[in-house]
Specification:
This protein has 120 residues and is α+β, with helices and mostly antiparallel strands. The chain has one domain: 6-pyruvoyl tetrahydropterin synthase/QueD (Tetrahydropterin Synthase, Chain A, 2-Layer Sandwich), CATH 3.30.479.10. The protein is built from 3 helices and 5 strands, in the order E-E-H-E-H-H-E-E. Strands 3-1-2-4-5 form a 5-stranded mixed beta sheet. The radius of gyration is 15 Å and the shape is elongated. The mean pLDDT is 95.
Length: 120
C-alpha cells in the first residue's frame, strides 16, 4: 500500500455555542487550522504517483475561498468542531479524489481530529 498526504492551512474563528457558557470554547475564538488530506493506493499511476499533488489544488482553493479568514459559524451548517470540519472536507472531495481515505484537522500543534469513513 502506498500512502501520501498533503497539508493545507487556513485561519478562522468559531464559537461552540453548544457548550456550557463557562467553557472557553463557548466564547468567540480562532485557530490557525492545518488540514491534512490522506490518500492511498495499492498501485501507482503511469507517472509513479498515488495521485499528482497538483490534483489537490481544489482542496486548497476551497479552503482559501470558503473557510480562510471567516467566522465558521456563519458558513458551516453544523457545530464547527475539528471532527465535523474533517468530515465536511472529506465528503466534499471524496468523489473527486477516490484515493482519499481520511482527512485530518488540527486546531493546535498538539491536537487533531481525523475523519476516516468505514469502507465496505
Amino acid at each position: 500500500m502506498f500512502r501520501i498526504s498533503q497539508q493545507f492551512a487556513f485561519s478562522a474563528s468559531h464559537v461552540l455555542d453548544c457548550l456550557e457558557e463557562s467553557h472557553p470554547c463557548a466564547r468567540l475564538h480562532g485557530h490557525n487550522y492545518v488540514v491534512t488530506v490522506h490518500l492511498q493506493s495499492e498501485t501507482l499511476n503511469a507517472y509513479g504517483f498515488v495521485t499528482d499533488y497538483h490534483a489537490l489544488k481544489t482542496v486548497k482553493d476551497y479552503l482559501d475561498e470558503h473557510l480562510d479568514h471567516r467566522h465558521l459559524n456563519d458558513f458551516l451548517p453544523f457545530h464547527p468542531t475539528a471532527e465535523n470540519i474533517a468530515r465536511h472536507i472529506y465528503e466534499k472531495f471524496c468523489d473527486q479524489l477516490p484515493e482519499m481515505y481520511a482527512v485530518e484537522v488540527s486546531e493546535t500543534p498538539k491536537t487533531s481530529a481525523i475523519y476516516e469513513p468505514h469502507r465496505q
